[in-house]
Structures are given as structure tokens and as C-alpha cells.
Amino acid sequence: MRDALPYVLILYYSRYGATRAMAEQLAAGVESCPGVEARLRTVPSVSPTCEAVDPDIPAEGAIYASLDDLRHCAGLALGSPTRFGNMAAPLKHFVDGTSELWLGGALIDKPATAFTSTASLHGGQETTLLSMLLPLLHHGMVYAGIPYSETALMTTAGGGTPYGASHLAGQRSDRVVTDEERQLIHAQGHRIARLALSLRPLRETS
Hints:
7-stranded mixed sheet; 7 strands
């Protein structure tokens, strides 16, 4: 059953908590736009061995995403830490299982964006964001980064890219989100929410 208000699905994987903190900040940005809700969802870890099985409900944080969460969203934000300049395997595993939605065109003309965190400043933030962009384009989504009207892009000494929000988490993932990173994450959430409302009539008349 659909919610009364359209929602932006914030779908993320977080190993040590940095990406989860970003997801929560982005949700605040989404909900700063009247008429839209944020829906936080995560994905379970994956393992090369068949013995590793996660519980159906995580012990803490957001619950696991379903295809229906994705099917009925008005907009999407994907979040992942970097893994060798790419999105983490658990998130990719979930995205790889969305062929049913692709075949039905369920995500065409919906706005999408991405965010990431890394242990080091040059640890692959931009390539990780681009790796998340690729399946979104295949789904026919409308990608939205962060425009340079957000002046923090020019002054940040941590994360922040035009491809999407990013965060320098540090080697122990204990570096807090800076004011400039938070400003960019919040702006990204507000923008994807605004676009979700703006593009909704287009999808309904197509």
C-alpha cells in the first residue's frame, strides 16, 4: 500500500556507521521540502560462503529494503562506502536483483542521486558515485548531483562533489560529518525531494 505522501527512498549500505550518518542527514534534507517523506532502508551483508545468513530484521538502524520500496518511491538516493573505487558488494547485489523493475520500466523518469564515504580523501569518492550512477541510468532515472550554486563545493576541505555528497570518514570511521559536508548532504536531500514532486506529473501523464 502506498503512503499518503510521496517518499524518497534512501537506500544505503553502511559497515561502520559513516554512510548511515550521511543517510540520516540526507533524510533531514528531504523532509525539509514540504509534501515529501524520507524512507530509510538498508541491505544485508553478503558473503562468499553460504553459511553466512543475516536475520530478517537488522538489530539496529533501518530495516532491509524490498523491491516494493523501490517500485513505489518518488525518488531514490543510493549510498555506499567505497570498495576499491566502486560501490560496496551488498548494495550492488541488491541493485543487480532489480531486473523485474527494469523490465516493467518502474523507475523511468524518477529522480535519483548518490552519496558515499571514504577512509581517505582520495579514496575513490567520485568513482564510487559514478559506479552507482550507471544502473540508475539503465533504469531510465533522471540523475541529479549537487550544483555549484551550493558554495560549499568550492570551500570544503573534506567531502563534497558535484556528482553527489561525500564524507571523509577517516581510517577508523570516527571523523564526524563536517559543517560543509552536512550542508551539501542537506542540500542534496532537499533537491531530490523537490525534483520528486516536480517530475511526478510527468510520470503520471506518460
